[in-house]
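[Automated response] Your request has been received and processed.

Submitted sequence:
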Amino acid sequence: MEREQVEEIKTTLVRNIKIFWSDHWLPITAFVVLIVSCQLFNLTHSGFFYPLMFVSGWIVVMFALKLKSESSPFSSKKSTKNMQQDTSYETYTVLRVYTNDPNFQEYMQNQEYFHSQHVQMENRVIDHNQDIESQIMFIRKPEFAFCYHLLMDRKNEMYFIGEYV
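Generated structure:
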């Protein structure tokens, strides 16, 4: 019975080592090559080892930075997951429409009329827990009398946010 348990532990250990090796063979090999090439360079002072040290060192550093960035508190993967879980944040396209027409709101549904106005677009993450109007900066253009802020979501639906004179 003990022999079966020992065989099962060996089998599990070998399987786990193979899985770990298949996932991490490149950084392990690069690290070994880096150590060996540095030791051989110290013994021989041959320029032959410069490319080996550079390439293997570069691979080791890139994997270290990748692992560090994935586990850091500022990781983009984690922040996008948190943003998807927290529904108060959403990405919108902010449209700043500059015009001299005081009747813009009446005619803005007309696509030709809308495109004849001066429109600036920018992508912005909006927090629905805060005042939306205060999150969009008003940029004055002296040649236009009116500025309208519109939000466009991912479904291309537009929302009127504010009018500035």
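Summary generated for your ticket: Residues 2-44 form the longest helix (43 residues). Confidence is low (pLDDT under 50) at residues 74-84.
If you did not submit this request, please reply to this message.
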